[in-house]
Amino acid sequence: MLKRGEAGVSGCCVLDVRLWGKESGLSRPYPVVCHLLDTSAVFQELWDVVVSTETKSAVAGALGLGQAEARSVVSFWAGLHDIGKISPPFQAQAPLLYGPVRDDPAYVNAPGAEGDSAFRHERASHWSLYSLLVQAGYPNDERLMHRSVSHQVAQLLGGHHGAFGTVLKAKQAKRASDYNPGLGAGGWADQRQVHFGELRRATGALAVPRGGLPAGLAVVVAGLVVVADWLASQASAIEARMPGAGWSGTAAEVDAHWQVAVRAARGVVRAARLGRAGFSAEEFGLMFPFAPNSLQRDLVEHLPAMVAKDGPGIVLVTAPTGDGKTEAALFAASVLGRAADARGLYFALPTMGTADAMLPRVEAYAARALSGERALMLLHSMAWLDSPGAVDCSSESGDQSGEGVISAGRDTAVEADGWLRGARRGLLAPLGVGTIDQALGAVLPLRYNVLRLLGLSDKVFVVDEAHAYGPWMHQLLVRLLEWLGEMRAPVVLLSATLTGRTAGSLVDAYRRGAGIREPSGVVPRYPGWLFASAAAEVVSPARGTTTDRVRTLRVSHRSVAWDALASAGAPVLEGGRRVVLREVLAPVAAGGGTALVCCTTVAEAQQTYRDVCAAFPELAASPGGVRLLHSRYPADERARITAECAAAYGKPEGGPVSVRPASVLVATQVVEQSLDFDFDLVVSDLAPIAQLLQRAGRGRRHRRGPLGRPAWAAAEDEPVLVVLDPLTAEASRPPRSWGAVYDAGLLTRTSRVLQERALGGIAVPDDVQWLVDEVYEEEFVDRLEGAARDELVRLDEERLSGEAAERHLAAWTSICSPADVKGDLSKLSVRDAGVTQELLTTRLGADTGRVLCLYRQPCGRATLDPEGTVEVPGGGRWGLRPAGLAEVARRVAPVPGRWLRGGEPDTAVPQGWGTHPSLRDLVLLYMAPAGEGSWVCQYGRFTISMSGVGLEAH
């Protein structure tokens, strides 16, 4: 051991700088005390730059401290996170460094302690910090450990690797080293004590909190500790502060290192772009280059006064597609964000395609309306391909130079780097646009879920298409809204077709999190909006608004025999779907204009595309005459088609508008949400009423004027929706090919409502809300008699039981509500038996796989493209290089999971490609040419083909 006087002293023990905290990728070992100081300094800077004034005040109030004292105390806590590295199993990971310590008689090891790799350092932090904090005078309650401030802090810091340990029992805590020999004895305990004391002294955290943190504040602090740890672990930052030879950790040297770390932390945090955006623009005209419409104007006139009086909260906007909900949401976000002192916003959408399309709109809004740090992230599973600079770190390279490399073991480095440049960091950027699942992961017991909660805690959370989620995701959204209510994060919900019951469940969840138990009793107006405060028991009556486009939707309900999968050369049957399609699309082919044909399944869309091409060969031969869009294309091909569709069917950019050339888009449900497409005619297979109304919103969506529509579609305010309905007297059940895409009972209800109510047209927006509510009302079955009534009752029972099962599974797998945490953070990490990572990250019922087609060329080699120009990357020790990984990921396509059951040899990703998340569970399909631009392979019992219509299986 070092002699007294050579280092910082605590009691009869002195600081031992031989104990290392970081060494991977560094020029020499970095003492653990230095990393503790660095992390405290970075946390302190995050506290100053990222955390809102309101949150700082709330933390100080909960701890019973002044704000300056609270700042020092929580920064001190952050540094303590790695005190568990002062333990035999961790130090033994570097044998050459461990030797002198092991041979020092002051360090007492139980037999086998240094080899106990299962006793990780974060667990050691949890177990050892409890007693250290008790000795420091922190409040303690041995009878109810979950209420002990000492234990709460220890448990919080023990969760810095993404999962919290269970609450300790008092007898375990008193004899921690007996229960965990990996803690070591003698000098190990002494060194944890002296490091604790030196860190406390240097940071000035001498104040003792009188209370603990409620759940919402606890996850904010826990998330900030993770961020501080990872930012402080960057190799470039460590090398800049590496102590010189002879550094012995005296009190003066510790103080000097602390001062350097504090100054350096400013640059570290600034480089990470984790600052705050400011909602500086107050007027609609400063946010958008156009005047507000009726809906937006009503928000402008009334929402600011409501928020000024009752504080921020939740806004629900219900309006038809094309009525400017996006701009209404962004204006509401500005009002709420300014009142809440929010640091940014996250705009959540249902799909990757809709998120990609929303990104430039939010970017333009941010440029006009926001100030401060405006780092904007696109967040979904493939977003890293489109993020500037993101690909540069997608490889798990062994290069340890440069900004962003982490000094840690390999597993930790991958996680940290993935966060700094990918999804885990993404939600912490001030501004984000992405898929809803990125946010819902916050309420699943996934590792680092506190980072997601932290990322959303101080932002305005905007949810588009709030009606579009099934019971599983709806239940998760309910739980997330409870947490956002607890953290007083403002929320804006958008929907074109939302039932009153669903609207009430979402608003009530947010209010429940905010501590307001009284049901809101909300009744949405359509179009319209409502506001509920998070700080007061105030729910404004829903405000109905007018619309600048009152329209009458003309519904042509066509009962058809289902022949959607018949080959393109088969005879066209009278009364079948194919003959009706020919009839309704004939005006397009003859007179120009555009049409959307929305199909239920990918297979039916592919076959419909072939059939339309065969029926209208001249149209098919013209550029863009017939297009096909669905999810079963490689990512780059789908992106190309989507961009082409946006150019062909998007909003006019100004200037003269003329009739568009004849064009038909055959697509699946991917077009019904958030994509700003405009068609002269919409044709759809039968779907639940909410989905049909969404699709109808793509009909004559924008004003094109008398010269912009073909003669057959001249009535701009009377769009036409043709519904192809397979439910006939001869076939009362949906086609077998539809499987479980839609509930049969809802299809039956929708079919009957369309037949009964839509003959005179549907007034938009006046009829929309009652139409949606009518389809879902319980009394619907009372209109029917006999066998029809019995059948619908049975179908309803099946639907309700299925929805109940999904809600139960979501409740079973998600984390508890903030009110139920009650001091035990392990409830955010614990999974019940049978709850796997795959179950948590997969939407219930979603059976999907991911494939990469490799094309065998005549010479025998395989390439990434059919033309044979892009070589398959070879990889290496550290996996694929960034460019190779990007080439692979751009060509991945989703397929039904049943296609891949059974497996085939030699279809796994080569070991040399590495373990990047985008390669996880990827299946390689070695395709052989089959003529006419088609490629095929055999996989299990399926023959899988790739052609111009995407992937198919037979």
In short:
This protein is of the alpha/beta class and 954 residues long. Helix content is 41%, strand content 14%.
Walk me through what this model shows:
- There is one protein chain.
- With 954 residues, the chain is an alpha/beta fold.
- Helices cover 41% and strands 14% of the residues.
- It is built from 33 helices and 30 strands.
- It has an eight-stranded mixed beta sheet with strand order 11-12-9-13-14-8-15-16, sandwiched between helices. It has a seven-stranded mixed beta sheet with strand order 19-20-18-21-22-17-23, with helices on both faces. Strands 24, 25, 26, 27, 28, 29 and 30 form a seven-stranded mixed beta sheet that branches.
- The longest helix has 28 residues, at 786-813.
- The protein is globular, with a radius of gyration of 30 Å.
- Residues 1-7 and 387-420 have low confidence and may be disordered.
Number of helical segments with 4 or more residues: 33
Number of beta-strand segments: 30
Broad structural category: alpha/beta
Q: How large is the radius of gyration?
A: 30 Å
Strand order across the largest sheet? 11-12-9-13-14-8-15-16
Low-confidence stretches: 1-7, 387-420
Distance between the termini: 73 Å
**What average pLDDT do the residues reach?**
88
Largest sheet at a glance? 8 strands, mixed
| Overall geometry | globular
Q: How much beta, percentage-wise?
A: 5-15%
Helix-residue proportion = 40-55%
